């Protein structure tokens, strides 16, 4: 047995076989061509491999989710048999003297551009498909192995680190837990693990090699300990611990449907953070009272090209409808920093966390922003949708964002398309600048939601991704708590509601502090809903000895 220590991301116990994460290497489009015949041969072989993979995926998906949902894999197989596509690749290899990788990549970009330029929104959405099938062929060409979980019912993923988009590509139904040698507890991958409610330990500093694939591993997310190939005593002790945890979870069930209210009657809204519509099941399961943060950028991370207005509209509408009349706060695109999307072609930066991200991208690329705002406004006709702008530092940014929103709304009115004219508009308070001028910002918006993850990073000047700095990181630093208190005070003075949607909102040791500050809403990962409700209901703010 090997005992490994790291940092816990989610308190839970997971026991299962270890599957190592294999990273797809970046496109090998730079490889020199090995001669026309050889490259044509390689391409045809890789195409066949890709078709066979898609057939296997189709069969698995039919079994799991039914024919309708599986149809996409059939369409992808058809696209890989399309004469125009095949001819373009082979012509580029033949007359362009290109490697198979380069020819496939060039064809993918040409076809994607052609699809995007079409009027029909269905055809526009095919751009993502052509990129997807081409990436599959490229992976087959370079012999890059996909992380194949088909042999397992449930697994623990071992990796050096996982990016948010890599995590999203995994079959999360099968994942019992994560162990990563790198990574920090505040990274978006850690946040994803929390959203999914799965045990995870990061920053173990112990890389795994192929020889441990398939061994039993236990993650104790309460202590941040990982046991590789456990002895029978440890296994038995951990199974008992898992049973106790399950019993506490079952006890929390009695809180379903009860208000999130202190003994003396102070009630708050307890909402969930989600990344995509796949998380809606968790929202219902854990009895969230609304959605306080829909990280819309995950729609972009999951895609191989820009999601269209229709794609986004479908996701937002589904969420609004699933929540009935309950509030759904959709945050506009927060790409940048650790959330990288290749097709945005963002320049490499020395300090990406302080660079072109979030609202800065949206205001610099109005065409992109407009599509998202249209999708969002259209979805507002189907529920109680609120829009929230991230990474705000100034009044000017709010005014410009609101002006774009108004333009979009006028355009929809002119087109006779319905939207909610009362839709709330809020901002994230996640920069020290925003917290400090929150008295002025409050006059411009309907609510504030405090992003404690970034607020902490920017206030303490500690990179949230940097695991080596965890020892210097103090989530309860008085500067953070003062900024939060100031924001609540300024928000209330202007008559608006103030919530917290960063990870600190789920910190039970601060729940009382937040309530005493007068916080109106806490938005946490779905699995944290009932524990926070239990905490709030145990408090009595009339007690003065705090
Ligand atoms: C935050 O910064 O606290 C936040 C909620 O946004 P994200 O974690 O997605 O950056
Ligand atoms: Mg943030």
Automatic annotation (TrEMBL):
Keyword Metal-binding: yes
PROSITE patterns (alphabetical): PEP_ENZYMES_2
Annotated GO biological process: phosphoenolpyruvate-dependent sugar phosphotransferase system
Main enzyme class: transferase
Phosphotransferase system enzyme I N-terminal domain segment(s): 5-126
A GO cellular component entry from the record: cytoplasm
Any Pfam family the entry gives: PEP-utilizers_C
SUPFAM superfamilies in the record: Enzyme I of the PEP:sugar phosphotransferase system HPr-binding (sub)domain (SSF47831), Phosphoenolpyruvate/pyruvate domain (SSF51621), Phosphohistidine domain (SSF52009)
Positions of phosphoenolpyruvate binding: 295, 331, 453-454, 464
Residue ranges constituting the PEP-utilising enzyme mobile domain according to the UniProt record: 153-224
Cofactor entry: Mg(2+)
List of catalytic residues: 188, 501
Record: residues binding Mg(2+): 430, 454
Record's subcellular location: Cytoplasm
Keywords, alphabetical: Cytoplasm, Kinase, Magnesium, Metal-binding, Phosphotransferase system, Pyruvate, Sugar transport, Transferase, Transport
GO molecular function terms attached to this record: kinase activity; metal ion binding; phosphoenolpyruvate-protein phosphotransferase activity
Catalytic reaction(s) noted: L-histidyl-[protein] + phosphoenolpyruvate = N(pros)-phospho-L-histidyl-[protein] + pyruvate
Residue intervals of the PEP-utilising enzyme C-terminal domain: 251-540
Superkingdom of this protein's organism: Bacteria
E.C. number: 2.7.3.9
Functional note: General (non sugar-specific) component of the phosphoenolpyruvate-dependent sugar phosphotransferase system (sugar PTS). This major carbohydrate active-transport system catalyzes the phosphorylation of incoming sugar substrates concomitantly with their translocation across the cell membrane. Enzyme I transfers the phosphoryl group from phosphoenolpyruvate (PEP) to the phosphoryl carrier protein (HPr).
Family label: Belongs to the PEP-utilizing enzyme family.
Protein name stated in the entry: Phosphoenolpyruvate-protein phosphotransferase
Species whose genome carries this gene: Megasphaera vaginalis (ex Srinivasan et al. 2021)
Gene: ptsP
């Amino acid at each position: 047995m090997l005992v490994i220590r790291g940092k816990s991301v989610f308190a839970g116990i997971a026991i299962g076989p270890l599957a190592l994460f294999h990273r797809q290497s970046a496109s090998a489009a730079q490889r020199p061509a090995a001669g026309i015949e050889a490259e044509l041969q390689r391409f045809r072989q890789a195409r066949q491999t890709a078709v066979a993979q898609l057939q296997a995926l189709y069969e698995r998906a039919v079994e799991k989710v039914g024919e309708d949902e599986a149809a996409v894999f059939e369409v992808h197989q058809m696209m890989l048999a399309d004469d125009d596509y095949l001819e373009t690749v082979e012509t580029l290899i033949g007359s362009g003297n290109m490697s198979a990788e380069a020819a496939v990549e060039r064809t993918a970009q040409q076809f994607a551009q052609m699809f995007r330029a079409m009027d029909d929104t269905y055809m526009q959405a095919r751009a993502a498909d052509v990129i997807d099938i081409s990436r599959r062929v490229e992976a087959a060409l370079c012999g890059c192995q996909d992380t194949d979980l088909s042999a397992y019912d449930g697994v623990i993923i071992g990796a050096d680190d996982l990016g948010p988009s890599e995590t999203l590509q995994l079959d999360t139904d099968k994942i019992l837990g994560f162990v990563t040698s790198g990574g920090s507890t505040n990274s978006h991958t850690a946040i994803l693990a929390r959203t999914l409610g799965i045990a995870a330990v990061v920053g173990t500093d112990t890389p795994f090699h192929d020889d441990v694939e398939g061994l039993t591993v236990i993650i104790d997310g309460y202590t941040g300990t990982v046991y590789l190939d456990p002895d029978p005593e440890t296994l038995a002790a951990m199974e008992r611990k898992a049973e106790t945890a399950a019993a506490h979870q079952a006890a929390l069930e009695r809180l379903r449907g009860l208000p999130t209210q202190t003994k003396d009657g102070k009630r708050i809204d307890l909402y969930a953070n989600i990344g995509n519509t796949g998380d809606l099941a968790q929202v219902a399961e854990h009895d969230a009272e609304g959605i306080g943060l829909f990280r819309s950028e995950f729609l972009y991370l999951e895609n191989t090209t820009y999601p269209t207005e229709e794609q986004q509209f479908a996701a937002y509408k589904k969420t609004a409808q699933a929540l009935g009349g309950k509030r759904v706060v959709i945050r506009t695109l927060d790409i940048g920093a650790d959330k990288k999307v290749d097709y945005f072609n963002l320049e490499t930066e020395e300090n990406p966390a302080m660079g072109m991200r979030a609202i800065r991208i949206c205001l610099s690329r109005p065409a992109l922003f407009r599509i998202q705002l249209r999708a969002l406004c259209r979805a507002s006709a189907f529920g109680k949708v609120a829009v929230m702008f991230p990474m705000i530092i100034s009044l000017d940014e709010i005014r410009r964002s609101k002006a774009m929103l108004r333009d979009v709304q006028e355009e929809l009115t002119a087109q006779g398309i319905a939207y909610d004219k009362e839709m709330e508009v809020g901002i994230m308070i996640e920069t020290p600048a925003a917290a400090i001028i929150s008295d002025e910002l409050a006059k411009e918006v309907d609510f504030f939601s405090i992003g404690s993850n970034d607020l902490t990073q920017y206030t303490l000047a500690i990179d949230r991704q940097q695991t080596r700095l965890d020892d210097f990181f103090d989530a309860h630093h008085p500067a953070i708590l003062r900024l939060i208190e100031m924001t609540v005070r300024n928000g209330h003075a202007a008559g608006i509601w103030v919530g917290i949607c960063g990870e600190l909102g789920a910190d039970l040791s601060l729940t009382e502090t937040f309530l005493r500050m007068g916080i109106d809403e806490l938005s946490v990962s779905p699995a944290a809903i009932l524990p926070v409700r239990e905490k709030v209901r145990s408090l009595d703010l009339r007690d003065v000895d705090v």
